[in-house]
Design brief:
223 residues; Rossmann fold
């Protein structure tokens, strides 16, 4: 379970989101490297459309998005993106099987009500599913829980427990177990540490589960 994709932007400066003027998120850059040029992509929980924008600009994809918050849908439309309002838990069943080359869920699966069902739908809708998520097994999360006895807040998990939408936080090890449970093939898997360094995930995931702030998995349903 590893990736050998060339790093996007290695030849020069990292790409900048034209709508915000800010650098793209590290997991978005990694996802863009994993997506084939010219492919059809569904971005589930696409937020303000930053990832779809990046994929359109660097991978010339035919992109579609679904987002639950109306304000973020409007932001996507303002970018010229094809995005509709919808809920990952309720609306993915409406999409036909194998309708896209990639079904993407970036930093969203932990906020869904039924992560297993959502992941199964992604694998049905796309020839590949790409999922990124904050790692609840990161050392800073463990340390804050141990030292304070309270739900940790980090830059990837900034909300207090009573405001957080993240009802199903998991570690990298937990997600690997879920992939095995639904018999999903892990094609690529990478953890990203605090400084943006990429740590390929292989059969031994102890260090990645300890030092990876986020993880990105490329999955495929088994025939």
């Amino acid at each position: 379970m590893s990736t050998s994709a060339p790093a996007l932007g290695m030849a020069g400066a990292e790409p900048i989101d034209p709508a915000t003027g800010a650098p793209y998120r590290a997991d978005h850059l990694l996802i863009a490297e994993m997506v084939a040029v010219g492919s059809r992509v569904l971005d589930v929980g696409c937020g303000d459309g930053a990832l779809l924008q990046l994929l359109a600009d660097t991978r010339a994809v035919d992109g579609r998005g679904i987002e639950v918050e109306r304000e973020k849908v409007n932001a996507c439309v303002a970018r010229g993106l094809s995005v509709i309002q919808g809920d990952a838990d309720a609306d993915l069943t409406d999409y036909p099987a194998q309708a896209f080359d990639y079904a993407v869920l970036s930093l969203t699966i932990q906020a869904t009500q039924h992560p297993k069902t959502v992941l199964e739908n992604l694998l049905r809708i796309g020839r590949h599913a790409i999922v990124s998520f904050p790692n609840f097994g990161h050392w800073s999360v463990r340390a804050k829980l141990l030292l304070t006895g309270r739900k940790p807040t980090t830059r990837n998990l900034p909300e207090p427990w009573y405001l957080s939408p993240d009802s199903h936080l998991c570690t990298i090890a937990d997600f690997v177990d879920l992939c095995a449970d639904i018999d999903a093939e892990v094609e690529q898997a990478v953890a990203i540490n605090t400084w943006g360094r990429r740590l390929p995930i292989n059969r031994s995931i102890r260090l990645q589960n300890l030092f990876g702030e986020k993880a990105v998995f490329v999955l495929k349903g088994r025939d």
